[in-house]
Design a protein that fits this description.
Blueprint (H helix, E strand, L loop, with lengths): L2 E5 L7 H16 L4 E5 L4 H14 L4 H19 L3 H20 L2 E4 L3 H11 E6 L7 H6 L12 E7 L8 H13 L2 E4 L2 H11 L32 E5 L5 H14 L2 E5 L22 H9 L3 E4 L2 H9 L3 E5 L11 H11 L5 E2 L5 H6 L4 H25 L7
Parallel strand pairs: 1-2, 1-4, 2-3, 4-5, 5-6, 7-8, 7-9, 9-10, 10-11
Helix pairs in contact: 3-4
Length: 397
């Protein structure tokens, strides 16, 4: 029996990225579909070169350009520095790599996208791309997550795949209008993505939940320690942006509660605002440990989509902050807007200037939230089942 191939960013040293990639594998396992995640290592250089060429040629807005320059500097810092930041980053990287090796079932190594494409017909009943921000302009240019390498005779599915932004540059939009018509089944994660697909391809596609939401908090216990990693009450801070008011909010929360701040710091890059505000900053934390920290926190402060997701699944008192301003092209705010619309949660988006006592006393009716999540979860599974059945030879619409 042929397998379903998963195209995902399983290798990304980011808690949300790795957990959503693992959730996609978990979902196919749950549905009884034999699957494997495509090992990207043999042609990752090919993909990186295409992305670099895109960023070199593209007429970028200054905020995106500065972001990419910052990331490039960060790679060099980690690689060549001998300071504490570089040392700590290596500790965390080792934990990510160990988690990836333990939990992902990877395919054989392919030397190129072309070789992978040739093997698709004999090996795979379908190729599924998802989820996360895999249709960003740079990824469209790299032409892997577009599934253009997959022969027409093989079923193709996009599950909860995201553009990461509400609009695309002209060249990216032109390429997207082509690959969006080739993929047989498309389910997107955000309402903004739903509009983009309609605009670019004329297709009406559903919004499905992020794969991490396909499972309950209890189901996620299967990969984590049952006992809390941190014993005393604490405030978990997981910030990816460089926004000082968000850390100041956490400090005021500490003052009001007496709870210590446990922060995961300097995640995507070195962030100056991460220095000095937390009581504990552990680095030996893999994605399973991350879940444990969220589950057992008294409060969670974050600007992360996936940290917000797991805070909801574990019924935590959480406060979410916008990482970017709304008029920034690289803004990922739309995924949070969609999440809160799906769950019916209101009043959890913070600026950092709110009254702490009012925030502490603000409750969420999680029983109602979980009913809404169960509804979108069922709809999402139904979409996935219908899409996968096409690979078994059943006709799709």
């Amino acid at each position: 029996m042929k397998k379903t191939a998963i195209v995902s960013c399983y290798f990304q040293h980011n808690y949300g990225s790795m957990l959503q990639a693992y959730a996609t594998q978990m979902a196919l396992d749950k549905l009884g579909y034999e699957n494997e995640t495509i090992d990207i290592s043999g042609f990752n250089t090919e993909i990186k070169k295409a992305k670099l060429l895109y960023f070199a040629k593209a007429s970028l807005t200054s905020d995106i350009l500065l972001s990419k320059i910052g990331m490039a500097k960060n790679v060099l810092k980690k690689k060549f520095s001998k300071n504490q930041y570089a040392s700590n980053s290596k500790v965390r990287a080792t934990k990510f790599d160990a988690f990836s090796k333990m939990y992902f079932r990877l395919s054989e190594k392919y030397s190129s996208k072309a070789e992978l494409g040739e093997k698709c017909v004999e090996k795979y009943s379908g190729v599924l791309v998802g989820s996360d921000q895999l249709w960003l302009p740079g990824n469209i240019a790299a032409d892997y997550y577009t599934l253009n390498f997959v022969p027409e005779s093989v079923n193709t599915i996009a599950y909860a795949t995201s553009f990461g932004q509400s609009s695309l540059p002209k060249d990216s939009a032109k390429k997207a209008s082509i690959f969006l018509k080739r993929i047989k089944y498309i389910g997107v994660r955000e309402e903004s993505g739903q509009k983009l697909v309609k605009e670019l391809s004329g297709r009406n596609v559903p919004v499905v939940c992020d794969p991490t939401l396909l499972f309950t908090g209890d189901e996620w216990l299967s990969i984590q320690e049952k006992e809390p990693l941190v014993k005393k009450p604490y405030i978990l801070c997981y910030f990816l942006g460089n926004n000082l008011p968000h850390r100041e909010f956490a400090k005021r929360l500490r003052e009001a509660t007496g709870y210590k701040i446990v922060a995961l710091t300097h995640l995507d890059e070195y962030v100056k605002s991460d220095e000095g505000y937390a009581d504990e900053t552990p680095y030996d934390i893999d994605p399973a440990d991350f879940l444990n920290l969220v589950r057992n926190a008294s409060f969670v402060c974050t600007d992360s989509f996936h940290c917000t997701v797991f805070s909801i699944l574990y019924g935590r008192k959480f406060f979410t902050f916008h990482r970017y301003s709304k008029n920034t092209r690289q803004s990922t705010n739309s995924r949070l807007d969609t999440l809160f619309n799906l769950t019916g949660i209101e009043g959890r988006m913070m600026s950092g200037n709110e009254d702490i006592e009012a925030c502490i006393n603000a409750e969420i009716d999680f029983s109602t939230v979980y009913k809404k999540i169960e509804k979108i979860r069922k709809q999402s599974y139904n979409y996935l089942i219908d899409a996968l059945k096409a690979g078994d030879g059943e006709k799709h619409e």
